[in-house]
């Protein structure tokens, strides 16, 4: 895997070696990649800086679904599949995203623009079914709303 070309050293300069900074560092590195992921080289540099064993660091990025060590699209569509969203039609909504984008869950569009993922509860159950597209929240979704939502990212 090639490096994502993020200047991790520059980012890490702003953080002490405390492990409490880890989530913020991971977010910053991932956001700076432009491809919504943290490459292996960056992971090694973060592990060296924080003193956290590399395998533990990969444990963190694989546990939290907002992080990825694989290249993703500029916009990551994260569809909640927990029970309240599921009961209120999340499957039909994700099928609509899938159809509009021409990709399956877990895939990225050929132009590198969108990645489609499932995730656990986003804390947006009051507006279920819900998705997050990067930092944006979209709730009370119906399949027929998907086209207009995607148009906002064109
Ligand atoms: S169950 Fe979907 S946001 Fe909570």
Characterize the structure shown:
The chain contains seven helices and four strands. It is an alpha+beta fold. It has two domains: 8-63; 75-151, Glutaredoxin, CATH 3.40.30.10. The protein has a four-stranded mixed beta sheet, covered by helices on one side. Strand 3 and strand 4 form a beta hairpin. The protein starts with 7 loop residues before the first helix and ends with a helix. The structure holds FE2/S2 (inorganic) cluster.
Short description:
By secondary structure, the protein is of the alpha+beta class. 40% of the residues lie in helices and 12% in strands. It folds into 2 domains: 56 residues; 77 residues, Glutaredoxin, CATH 3.40.30.10.
Keywords for this structure?
Glutaredoxin; 2 domains; alpha+beta; single chain; four-stranded mixed sheet; elongated; binds FE2/S2 (inorganic) cluster
- Give the integer mean of the pLDDT values: 93
| CA gyration radius, whole angstroms | 17 Å
H/E topology pattern: HHHHEHHEEEH
Total count of domains: 2
For CATH, the homologous superfamily of the largest domain is named as Glutaredoxin
Identify the quaternary structure here.
single chain
What is the terminal separation in angstroms?
Answer: 29 Å
What is the percentage of strand-forming residues?
5-15%
CATH topology of the largest domain: Glutaredoxin
- The beta-strand count equals 4
Count, helices: 7
User: Which regions contain 5 or more consecutive residues with pLDDT less than 50?
Assistant: none
Strand order of the largest sheet: 2-1-3-4
Name the overall outline.
elongated
For the record, the CATH architecture of the largest domain stands as: 3-Layer(aba) Sandwich
SS content category: alpha+beta
Instruction: Work out the helicity level.
Output: 40-55%
């Amino acid at each position: 895997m090639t490096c994502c070309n993020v200047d991790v050293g520059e980012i890490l300069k702003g953080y002490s070696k405390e492990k409490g900074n880890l989530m913020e560092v991971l977010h910053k590195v991932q956001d700076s990649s432009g491809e919504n992921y943290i490459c292996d080289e960056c992971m090694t540099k973060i592990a060296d800086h924080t003193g956290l064993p590399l395998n533990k660091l990969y444990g963190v990025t694989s546990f939290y679904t907002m992080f990825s060590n694989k290249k993703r699209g500029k916009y990551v569509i994260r569809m909640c599949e927990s029970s309240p969203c599921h009961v209120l039609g999340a499957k039909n909504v994700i099928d609509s995203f899938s159809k509009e984008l021409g990709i399956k869950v877990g895939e990225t569009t050929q132009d590198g623009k969108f990645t489609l993922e499932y995730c656990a509860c986003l804390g947006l159950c009051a507006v279920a079914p819900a998705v997050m597209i990067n930092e944006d929240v979209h709730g009370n979704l119906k399949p027929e709303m998907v086209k207009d939502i995607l148009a906002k990212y064109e």
